[in-house]
Design brief:
Number of strands: 16
Order of helices and strands: HEHHEHEEEEHEEHEEEHEHEHHHEEEH
Number of domains: 2
GO cellular component, one term: Golgi apparatus
Shape: globular
Family: Belongs to the GDA1/CD39 NTPase family.
Structural class: alpha/beta
Largest sheet: 7 strands, mixed
CATH class of the largest domain: Alpha Beta
Helix content: 25-40%
CATH architecture of the largest domain: 2-Layer Sandwich
GO biological process, one term: UDP catabolic process
Number of helices: 12
Strand order of the largest sheet: 7-8-6-5-12-14-13
Keywords: ATP-binding, Hydrolase, Nucleotide-binding
GO molecular function: ATP binding; GDP phosphatase activity; ribonucleoside triphosphate phosphatase activity; UDP phosphatase activity
Radius of gyration: 24 Å
CATH topology of the largest domain: Nucleotidyltransferase, domain 5
CATH superfamily of the largest domain: Exopolyphosphatase. Domain 2
């Protein structure tokens, strides 16, 4: 923490340190630790930071946040950068919002939803303008635990900026974790087949499992405990997408009133190799992904070494791009049920040349009631 705090101390004018609030918010890495260790680390920070730094910092400013909070902060961050909390622009798309016990509905700028796929989990957050957004009372009841209602106004009475946001985290739906789940599925099926039918497919390098999700000719082995699976790519994107079906859980969402931004894996998957970042078009993406998948592994490695892909693409990306593009497509269209002709999804890393992180949303939320000088 010290280098980060020194950086902050150098940029905030020294006379202002005492009135500058500092928040230490911890995410998944800390959530994985036992409660006792989490508490010990936070206690250590609370005791030691004030010994070296004069920022406004107390015990309530250090916490481990939930996946739900992280999703809310990411949602606030992108909508702030896009100016969706502003009042000036009357030409912008607006939405009518009905909130709880308020008699009058609010009319304000329409916000955008976010999709964020990391290595292990997937998050979605979008505004629910009214409770009528759910098709049945049961669906609304189930969604209550996933709804976050919060006020971004300057005080509690100021209800013009009360937002109701649906936030959900799907653990195991990140790109790398999904690949592990897929490999385990194939491994289990292969070993079950060999016991029942005496088939040797996948059990040796001579008779590999022909994996439609890897580029043509790429050879790979997967080991889980005592069991090993030998794979050779056959680059069939459609067949790959079909095999991923059992790994999905349905999560129908209401996106009729919103546009979405896809971050992290959604951006890498469309941009790093396929160069299709920005507005997402399902047929264009499918055609490019199929074309990539069908190439021989030697051709792809040659292109990679020749610098034909983005500077962010590494060998891991080139190897698993076929799988990840099929997974992303299935998550969007089979998991979340986005129609193939959905016109309002963009994948992004920077918005107006600014990197949008959940931390921006967190500081806006934490300081919303501070008096503005």
């Amino acid at each position: 923490m010290r280098p980060l705090l020194r950086f902050a101390a150098a940029h905030v004018p020294a006379p202002k340190h005492k009135e500058t609030p500092l928040y230490v918010l911890c995410t998944a890495g800390m959530r994985l630790l036992p409660q006792r260790q989490q508490a010990a680390i936070l206690e250590d920070l609370v005791q030691n930071i004030p010994l070296e730094f004069d920022f406004l910092f107390s015990k309530s400013h250090a916490e481990v946040i939930s996946g739900k909070q992280e999703g809310v902060y990411a949602w606030i961050g992108i909508n702030f950068v896009l100016g969706r909390f502003d009042h000036e622009d009357e030409e912008a798309a607006v939405v009518t919002v009905a909130l709880g016990d308020q008699a009058e509905s609010l009319v304000r700028k329409r916000t955008v939803g976010i999709l964020d796929m990391g290595g292990a989990s997937l998050q979605i957050a979008y505004e629910v303008p009214s409770s009528g957004a759910f098709s049945s009372p049961q669906q609304e009841e189930a969604a209550k635990s996933l709804l976050a209602e919060f006020n971004l106004g300057c005080d509690v009475q100021h209800s013009g900026h009360v937002y109701r946001v649906y936030v959900n985290t799907f653990l195991g739906f990140g790109g790398n974790f999904a690949r592990q789940r897929y490999e385990e599925l194939v491994l289990n099926q292969t070993h079950a087949h060999s016991r029942l039918h005496g088939q040797q497919t996948g059990l040796s390098a001579e008779t590999p499992f022909l994996d439609p999700c890897l580029p043509v000719g790429l050879e790979d082995t997967v080991t889980r405990g005592e069991r090993t699976l030998h794979m050779r790519g056959r680059g069939d994107w459609q067949a790959c997408a079909k095999l991923l079906q059992p790994l999905l859980g349905g999560a129908p969402i209401d996106f009729s009133n919103s546009e979405f931004y896809g971050f992290s894996e959604f951006f890498y998957c469309t941009e790093d190799v396929l160069r299709l970042g920005g507005y997402y078009n399902a047929p264009t993406f499918t055609a490019a992904a199929q074309e990539y998948c069908s190439q021989r592994w030697e051709v792809l490695t040659k292109r990679f070494r020749g610098g034909l892909y983005s500077s962010h693409a590494d060998e891991h990306r080139v190897k698993y791009q076929c799988f990840k593009s099929a997974w992303m497509y299935q998550v969007l269209h089979q998991g979340f049920h986005f129609p193939p002709d959905y016109p309002s999804l963009r994948t992004a890393q920077l918005v107006y040349d600014r990197e949008v992180q959940w931390t921006l949303g967190a500081i806006l939320y934490k300081t919303r009631f501070l008096p503005l000088r």
